[in-house]
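Quick start: read one record
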Amino acid sequence: MQFVSTEAKWGPNRSFATEITSRTVAASISTRGVPAASRADANSNRTAMGTSYRWLCDSRRVTPTNLLNVVANGVARILMVRHGQSEWNAIGKWQGQEDPPLTELGVDQAMRAGQVLGSFDLIASSDLQRAAITATVIGELIGIGPVHVDDRLRETFVGPWQGLTRHQIEAQWPGWIKDGRRPPEAETETEVAVRAHAALIDLAAQIGSGEIFVVSHGGTIRALKRHLGGSDERFGNLEGSWFTVQGSEISHGESAYLLDHTGADETL
């Protein structure tokens, strides 16, 4: 698939850029929230080293030995997270593949996430604007771009449920959400996982070895992780999971929360 830069579609959006950092080895992201002490430590490290390091925590930093192992084995690590809050997130509408924009809070979430991330070798997103703009904001803050856009990273298509609230869905399809049922027009979880799997394989091939940051959607990340044998978890905004790609094989890793972990809403 041909990847497209968000700069062509969305414009450079320079107003979001508050600091463009030099590229460094990215720190691993823990499943815990980011304590203030860790951020203070990050500032101390950045000043001492004279380089723009940003750490999420100081317990799992990449060492030169670990980095050499990654390069030698052709392994790509991918952090895949959900976009910032959209206008339909805010009012509880199921989005699916509809394309509502980010709220002001959603943009702020992206900016806060960018302030705690290390650098990556590639940044990518789905083509839906809530993901692509989230990625653009973060990319400018961590000094990487343009964003590679791939429609295979889109949210699950849910047919007639798109644009409806949970209450409206319950009124027309009583009990379906609770039972895990979806309209016949909707994508299956397997279909979503297969396309997302293929997208990550192609992204990894762009760099061979290294780390990639991907902004996608809660249902897509959940489907892929379940498909790979991981836990069934609903992801809130700027939450997601690590994945490791080696050749045509993908394995799931730990969950990651770039903001305070408050849980996910029940809409796609």
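The radius of gyration is 18 Å.
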